[in-house]
Amino acid sequence: MADSLSNAKCAMCCENTAKYRCPTCAKITCSLRCVKSHKLTFQCSGVRCKTKFVSLDNYKCSNLQSDLVFLEDMDRLVNSTAHHSKNKLNRRRQNFQVRQLCLVAKQHGVDLKLLPYGMSRRKENTTVFNRKEKCIKWRIQWLFPEAGVEYTDKCVSEQEILGDALIKYIDPEKADVVYKQSLKNYFEFGTQGVCVFLKNELVPGTKIRYHQLDISQTLKSCLIKKTIIEFPTLHVVLLGKTASYFTGSQHTDDACAV
């Protein structure tokens, strides 16, 4: 550029030797001050027009490089727009599914409360309303305090008997072999020797109470008139270890429906 501008005077101050050529209007300038002055005077953006026609005779390596950068920018913009549109569509679909789930849960007598997006329990929740089967498929978190372990079922139909959903974990004959080691304390008693509790979310923390669920009933029946935050967390407790789950509570028909 220095050779092409040698001996040429600045188009603005007309005193100093020019050092720069505007990629938009080709005005030559000598300093930042004159560059700014020319932009203001001629209403020039100072940005090269990337789509300006360049004849083959004048086409140089710098033009090729600039065109490649331009094409990469356009490709990035297209992908970004498509990704944004896809995310927007997915979020709209998710919002519809969430509203539908909450509505059906309410119709089924469940007070379902969902946390804001971004919270871990919200992200983990796989509970959905299955329109084909017309039932809620719940995510269930099983806690086994006597074994110090927990397991999760991602999709349990509300029409399933609660005891049947528990069989694969602690039934001596039908339980999955992968649970036999970690849940060996429970295998001696099976489903007949345990109680299942659901925390009563409406009670202050100083007075923790639990609903004892009837495992001979469907999950849908067990959750009626209960408050669920995202998905049920069920405590599977051996019969001789249930005292602490009734601390600070009264054995009413509502709190202990067995």
Describe this structure in words.
Residues 10-44 form the HIT-type domain. One of its GO terms (biological process) is snoRNA localization. Belongs to the BCD1 family. The structure is a single chain. By secondary structure, the protein is of the alpha+beta class. Among the domains are: 7-51, no CATH class; 110-241, Ubiquitin-like (UB roll), CATH 3.10.20.90. Helices cover 31% and strands 19% of the residues. The chain has helices spanning 32-42, 61-107, 120-124, 162-170, 184-187, 219-223; strands at residues 20-21, 28-29, 111-113, 128-130, 135-144, 149-157, 194-199, 210-213, 227-229, 233-238. The strands form three sheets. Strands 4, 5, 6, 7, 8 and 10 form a six-stranded mixed β-sheet that branches. A two-stranded antiparallel sheet has the order 1-2. Strands 3-9 form a two-stranded parallel sheet. A hairpin with a 6-residue loop joins β1 and β2 (28-29). The longest helix is centred in the N-terminal third of the chain and has 47 residues, at 61-107. Residues 248-258 have low confidence and may be disordered.
Number of strands: 10
Q: Which geometry do the CA atoms define?
A: rod-shaped
Mean pLDDT reading: 83
Q: Based on the coordinates given, report the CATH architecture of the domain at 110-241.
A: Roll
**Stretches with pLDDT under 50, minimum 5 residues:** 248-258
Share of helix, binned: 25-40%
Q: Write the element-wise H/E pattern from the N-terminal end onward.
A: EEHHEHEEEHHEEHEE
Number of helices: 6
Strand fraction band?
15-25%
Q: CATH homologous superfamily name of the domain at 110-241?
A: Phosphatidylinositol 3-kinase Catalytic Subunit, Chain A, domain 1
* CA radius of gyration: 35 Å
**Biggest sheet record:** 6 strands, mixed
The first-to-last residue Cα distance is 90 Å
The structural class is alpha+beta
Organism: Stylophora pistillata
Keywords: Metal-binding, Phosphoprotein, Zinc, Zinc-finger
Function: Required for box C/D snoRNAs accumulation involved in snoRNA processing, snoRNA transport to the nucleolus and ribosome biogenesis.
Domain HIT-type: 10-44
